[in-house]
């Protein structure tokens, strides 16, 4: 679990590279800073009160309040030090849980807390991709702290911490609903609040460094095995299944994306293979431990095709989701979550509700797998939109037009990602450092 925790944390710097390469050169540092700021802000919030709001030690969500949010048992991580996370998983219906077997599955609650912290961190970081090039850094930091408190901690409790969605029987193995739909809905809300980038739709805004994008993709792919297989919380057959299904769906989705590109655009791109891989990773996340390998391939196929087309929605609907968070994470998360209603089989977890296409499957599970994304998506969107509006009306969420044209790196951070000597795309950098033609007040 310690290794898996480190792998998931590595995903956020990987995301910084992935997102950083997709932005324009004058925004790369700000984009990466938003990911690293997420690590700082969420960690502090988690230690003080986040884990306590997420995790109900009783695990039964008793009482109306505990159906919505955890108690106050672990404020400041008090009480976590000597506690044990009891992960009692029965993989064989006939197997009896003995004291020795239970002890073998248990591990320190502090390790469980650290593992869950890394999920909260990357969920917040994912949102930043929708508002690249134009968000005040200070406003983003404030939004990250309040959003993780009002949205992520309660939603994670709803599904994983003993809350109402989990009690209803909604399945989400590693975060399709909790992480990706949650972040995707918030990203759409912020994109609408901040509006379009200056020149959007009129001038090219291509990724400035596809090498960074591919490097970030590789790190994300690598770390995602900790994300998905680690979510079993035990070294067993289900963890192995989640590991293999992650690989299958990701490879199929990446291949599907570039095939669609070839058929539609007459060429396959490196950005396409990177985006397809991430789409596959997103879609298999909620299902990886609950489906057979053939179903993982189907999920990857659907995600690769659906997300490839979905990224074009912003052009048709007129919202500027800078780095396709909605098209990949919201849509991919929905594909994966809803697919469980059809193909869930739970090879090593007897007694679970199966997908309607499987023997013994029930239509009720389809309804539940639709309810989860709808409830979480609407809640995240509304709260994010209101929070974004409040920040925008008070301190301002968007940098000035002058600063946006000059480049957010130089105006907000007094740095540039590349030393280009006396020539800079924004015209505000010289070989001796920044020239004060733009006031650095947007931070």
UniProtKB/TrEMBL annotation:
It comes from the Bacteria. Keywords: Ammonia transport, Membrane, Transmembrane, Transmembrane helix, Transport. It is a multi-pass membrane protein. The keyword Transport applies. Pfam families: Ammonium_transp (PF00909). Residues 1-418 form the Ammonium transporter AmtB-like domain. One of its GO terms (molecular function) is ammonium channel activity. The keyword Transmembrane applies. Gene3D superfamilies: Ammonium transporter AmtB like domains (1.10.3430.10). GO terms for cellular component: plasma membrane. The chain crosses the membrane at residues 32-55, 67-85, 109-132, 139-161, 173-195, 207-227, 239-259, 271-288, 294-313, 325-346, 366-388. It is found in: Cell membrane; Membrane. Signal peptide: none annotated. Belongs to the ammonia transporter channel (TC 1.A.11.2) family. This is Ammonium transporter. It comes from Nonomuraea soli.
């Amino acid at each position: 679990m310690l290794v898996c925790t480190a792998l998931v944390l590595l995903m956020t710097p990987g995301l910084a590279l992935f997102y950083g390469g997709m932005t324009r050169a004058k925004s790369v540092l700000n984009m990466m800073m938003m990911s690293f700021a997420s690590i700082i802000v969420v960690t502090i919030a988690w230690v003080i009160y986040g884990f306590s709001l997420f995790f109900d030690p009783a695990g039964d969500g008793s009482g109306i309040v505990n159906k919505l949010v955890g108690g106050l048992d672990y404020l400041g991580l008090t009480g976590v030090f000597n506690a044990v996370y009891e992960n009692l998983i029965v993989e064989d219906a006939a197997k009896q849980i003995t004291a020795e077997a239970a002890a073998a599955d248990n591990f320190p609650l502090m390790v469980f807390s650290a593992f869950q912290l890394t999920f909260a961190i990357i969920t917040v970081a994912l949102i930043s991709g929708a508002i690249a090039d134009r968000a005040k850094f200070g406003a983003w930091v404030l939004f990250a702290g309040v959003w993780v408190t009002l949205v992520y901690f309660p939603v994670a409790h709803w599904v994983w911490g003993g809350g109402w969605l989990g009690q209803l029987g909604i399945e989400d193995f590693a975060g399709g609903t909790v992480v990706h739909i949650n972040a995707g809905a918030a990203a759409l809300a912020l994109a609408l609040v901040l509006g379009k980038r200056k020149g959007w739709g009129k001038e090219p805004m291509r990724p400035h460094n596809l090498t960074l994008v591919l490097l970030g993709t590789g790190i994300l792919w690598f770390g995602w095995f900790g994300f998905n297989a680690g979510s079993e919380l035990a070294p067993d057959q289900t963890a192995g299944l989640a590991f293999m299904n992650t690989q299958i769906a990701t490879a199929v989705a990446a291949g599907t994306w570039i095939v669609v590109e070839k058929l539609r655009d007459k060429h396959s791109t490196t950005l396409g293979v990177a985006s397809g891989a991430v789409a596959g990773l997103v879609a298999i996340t909620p299902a990886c431990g609950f489906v057979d390998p053939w179903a993982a391939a189907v999920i990857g196929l659907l995600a690769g095709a659906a997300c490839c087309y979905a990224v074009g929605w912003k052009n048709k609907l007129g919202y500027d989701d800078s780095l396709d968070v909605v098209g990949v994470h919201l849509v991919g998360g929905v594909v994966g979550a809803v697919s469980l209603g059809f193909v869930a089989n739970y090879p090593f977890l007897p007694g679970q509700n199966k997908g309607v296409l499987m023997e013994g499957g029930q239509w009720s599970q389809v309804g539940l797998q639709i309810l989860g994304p709808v409830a979480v998506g609407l809640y995240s969107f509304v709260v994010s939109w209101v929070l974004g509006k409040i920040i925008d009306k008070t301190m301002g969420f968007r940098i000035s037009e002058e600063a946006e044209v000059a480049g957010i790196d130089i105006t907000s951070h007094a740095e540039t990602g590349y030393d280009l000597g006396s020539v800079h795309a924004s015209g505000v950098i010289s070989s001796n450092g920044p020239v004060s033609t733009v006031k650095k007040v947007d931070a």
